[in-house]
Amino acid sequence: MAYRILTINPGSTSTKLGCFEGEKELFTMNVSHDAEDLKKFATISDQLPYRKDMILNALKEANIDLSTIDAFVGRGGGLMAVEGGTYTINDIALDHARRGANGIQHPAQLGPQIARGFADEYQKPSFIVNAPDTDELCLEARITGIKGVYRNVHLHALNLKETAIRHSNNNGWNYEDKNYVVCHIGGGISVSAHQKGKMIDGFDIVGGEGPMAPTRCGSIPAAELIRYCFAHDDMKEVLALTTKTGGFVSHLGTSDALDVSNRANAGDKDAKLVWDAMIYQLIKCISAMAGVLHGKVDGILLGGGMVHNKELVSRITAACEWIAPVSAYPGEFELEAMAAGAIRVLEGKEQVKEYTGKPVWTPDQLD
């Protein structure tokens, strides 16, 4: 039996939908939401009825009958940090998604709410797969040089893990038996170390770590950042550099990676320097994650939208193939990954997990 899965991935001004029957894609679409309409809502969760109605209209036009769906999967925003895997959207997860219990307000909070709503209506299961705050860091990766300050992790966990699982399956391997350095290179850039099925380290892209990206500043020398903060009174403006106004936006006034690449190739010196610096930083971060794995790396895997750029892939390959073979998986597999996680559970290949609402790690565990 091929299970039929509906996946729901809300973004800032759109909601991505996918319907899958086993590995077969039946339907995908991007439901756009008017930015002016969204401004009318005080909170992310207040958008729920508006987005749900638009989703239902899109599904009706696509002739998708929700009564035929075996499980619903929503992007797991708003939740506390958890280990990777597939979780039932229980009452605690639903409450945390509504409130944004992790302190980060993001449209992905609507994923569990919409999925659970459909599941309750049609008496089917609902799941979250590799939530945005997936945290499998080893203890050493949490410690910083300031007592009482600890590293968190915010990465493109869903696409990172799916890329590693796909690569393993393509080679007849088990993800849990291999070590990888896995990168997501898109609007944001994540670089992570995967050891035997666990993402044991990675650069915190929300906290200002790793390579610069189109809208993110990446790692900054601490002393220089402190001076910058004291010279700028608006803390929101400074924090925005980590997620919205850093990287290409800060240097070049655009977040369009294709535009920056084209400008660099056309001889724009500023664009070339920034483009080259991003690739340089990517290479450095990949090498750091290889060191975390003690050089025992079965593959360096590149995913995300920028991986369509062959020159970028070629330059990373030339610099890093001495570590391990480099494989490119252009684009994102988020909808497919969400469906695959639900199917693994329904087929009994993976044990479903229960969300407790307790973060996977807190500093008191050091006592």
From TrEMBL:
Chief place where the protein resides: cytoplasm
Keywords for this protein: ATP-binding, Cytoplasm, Kinase, Nucleotide-binding, Transferase
Entry-linked CDD domains: ASKHA_NBD_BK
Compartments, as annotated in UniProt: Cytoplasm
Record-listed E.C. numbers: 2.7.2.7
Example GO BP: acetate metabolic process
Catalysed transformations (reactions): butanoate + ATP = butanoyl phosphate + ADP
A GO molecular-function annotation: ATP binding
Top EC class of this enzyme: transferase
Matching InterPro entries: Aliphatic_acid_kin_short-chain, Aliphatic_acid_kinase_CS, ATPase_NBD, Butyrate_kin
Gene3D superfamilies, alphabetized: 3.30.420.40
Tagged with keyword Nucleotide-binding: yes
PANTHER family, sorted: ACETATE KINASE, BUTYRATE KINASE 2-RELATED
Family label: Belongs to the acetokinase family.
Protein name from the UniProt record: Probable butyrate kinase
Originating organism: Agathobacter ruminis
